[in-house]
Task: inverse folding
């Protein structure tokens, strides 16, 4: 069965090792050996994770046959953010309702500064 | 193996039917039967998807034994957004570079208004 792009991206991200690899690549390109260093797993196991990330187009790999450094490709993550966009109103709205509710209280004993989403 | 919360959320989202169910619930609570309507699958198959979503705490279900309406719980999605936050700079930076590049052109024939992220 063909898997849609967004599903492939989310599946690739649904693993802490693969997210760890992306976090490492966010600091710069790296070889399989370098990526494997923090993990107690074989190069083959790390390569499998890289294959999933590569198929989801979350990483690309250099052409040099021996080293093939990995490079982060953030574009699919943007699609995840775009998908999330429709749901953001749920937590924004929850905060708005809470703020409105607090405003109706004469002297709310537990009122705190409204948490703002980082932008 | 215990699966971390974020992995469970992303795994649950990595399926178009489950994302479709969330989209439906974003318009209001619904029963399994209502959620199954748009899909050419058995109630049992839809129930399996609901179980994955429930385990990931993306939905909660009413207590009424017979109907148990499903309710969207957006909180785990917020964790996904928080995780994405670290990577946003990659596409924001790409846009900045593009904008800077376009500024260096005397009369860019294809210059468009810079796309701005919706906030």
Result:
């Amino acid at each position: 069965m063909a898997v849609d792009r967004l599903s492939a991206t989310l599946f690739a991200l649904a693993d802490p090792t693969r997210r760890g690899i992306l976090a490492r690549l966010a600091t710069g390109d790296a070889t399989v050996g370098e990526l494997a260093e923090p993990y107690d797993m074989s190069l083959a196991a790390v390569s499998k994770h890289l294959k999933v990330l590569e198929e989801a187009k979350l990483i690309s790999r250099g052409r040099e046959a021996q080293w093939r450094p990995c490079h982060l490709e953030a574009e699919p993550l943007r699609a995840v953010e775009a998908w999330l966009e429709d749901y953001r109103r749920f937590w924004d709205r929850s905060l708005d309702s809470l703020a409105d509710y607090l405003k109706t209280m004469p002297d709310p004993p537990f009122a705190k500064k409204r948490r703002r989403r980082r932008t």
Observations:
- Chain B has two domains: 3-75, 77-118.
- Residues 75-103 of chain B form the longest helix (29 residues).
- Residues 9 and 88 of chain B are 20 Å apart (CA to CA).
